[in-house]
């Protein structure tokens, strides 16, 4: 990772000044963080970048809760308790069995890279569960952003706006010398999360992003996912 001390230029930005393509290519999901807290002005700068994301009719549906310190520890304990009890209350479904064909192949390849990277031997269910539980320990991150959204129609358009926001947030983290990971798992216990963060039922929890300074020595940060060539996903016409 970059040196965590970002430079402040004369536009007031906290950017490291990386070229756009470097930011895009350096961003990767971080699964091991240092305990060092991120200065508040840098978190604000990242949030202000994310705020520039486009959205349907400029509705800006993201309702972001940044959780740190004792509150993050309280939330982690509450979520791990629900995990232990198997008390899942997601606002939106998620099921690996819904993937098919190429998508299922990619999901399986990701799962293999994930457990291998985390040092879990095939068939070691106990280690597997312990590694999965790291999701609700925020991979040791000192901060997490919870992305709540209002409930409109079938939710698809709102969720696409949230994705735009989340990726801008993630790229901004990289640009600030930070790292993050989007986690569907952080939406698995929506009721408890709303209760701990005092969020109204009006808002649905899509996912969360753990963030902070990457720990270069964490096993989870050895995982490097590739991408198919654009020829697999893009069709040119005309
Ligand atoms: C919306 C979303 C949810 C995700 N949820 C999780 C999660 O719950 N736990 C996790 O470890 N990784 C999660 N990931 C990370 C993906 O596994 C990762 O983005 C993918 O493997 C590509 O790797 P990269 O982000 O390092 O490029 C999620 C990614 C996205 C975009």
UniProtKB/TrEMBL annotation:
<dbReference type="InterPro" id="IPR029479">
    <property type="entry name" value="Nitroreductase"/>
</dbReference>
<dbReference type="InterPro" id="IPR000415">
    <property type="entry name" value="Nitroreductase-like"/>
</dbReference>
<protein>
    <submittedName>
        <fullName>Nitroreductase</fullName>
    </submittedName>
</protein>
<feature type="domain" description="Nitroreductase">
    <location>
        <begin position="24"/>
        <end position="212"/>
    </location>
</feature>
<dbReference type="GO" id="GO:0016491">
    <property type="term" value="F:oxidoreductase activity"/>
</dbReference>
<keyword id="KW-0288">FMN</keyword>
<keyword id="KW-0285">Flavoprotein</keyword>
<keyword id="KW-0560">Oxidoreductase</keyword>
<dbReference type="Pfam" id="PF00881">
    <property type="entry name" value="Nitroreductase"/>
</dbReference>
<comment type="similarity">
    <text>Belongs to the nitroreductase family.</text>
</comment>
């Amino acid at each position: 990772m970059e040196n965590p001390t970002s430079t402040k230029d004369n536009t007031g930005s906290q950017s490291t000044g990386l070229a756009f393509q470097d930011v895009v290519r350096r961003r990767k999901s971080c699964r091991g963080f240092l305990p060092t807290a991120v200065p508040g002005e840098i978190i604000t700068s990242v949030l202000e970048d994310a705020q520039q994301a486009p959205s349907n009719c400029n509705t800006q549906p993201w309702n972001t809760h940044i959780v740190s310190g004792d509150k993050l520890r309280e939330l982690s304990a509450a979520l791990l308790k629900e995990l232990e009890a198997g008390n899942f209350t997601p606002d939106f479904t998620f099921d690996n069995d819904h993937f098919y064909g190429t998508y299922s192949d990619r999901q399986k390849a990701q799962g293999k890279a994930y457990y291998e990277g985390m040092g879990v031997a095939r068939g070691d269910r106990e280690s597997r569960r312990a590694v999965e539980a790291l999701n609700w320990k925020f991979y040791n991150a000192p901060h997490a952003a919870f992305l709540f959204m209002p409930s409109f129609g079938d939710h698809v358009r709102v969720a696409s706006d949230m994705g735009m926001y989340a990726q801008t947030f993630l790229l901004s983290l990289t640009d600030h010398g930070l790292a993050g990971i989007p986690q569907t798992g952080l939406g698995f216990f929506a009721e408890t999360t709303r209760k701990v963060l005092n969020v109204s039922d009006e808002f649905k929890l899509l996912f969360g992003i753990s963030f902070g300074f990457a720990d270069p020595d964490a096993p989870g940060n050895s995982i490097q996912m590739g991408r198919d060539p654009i020829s697999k996903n893009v069709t040119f016409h005309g």
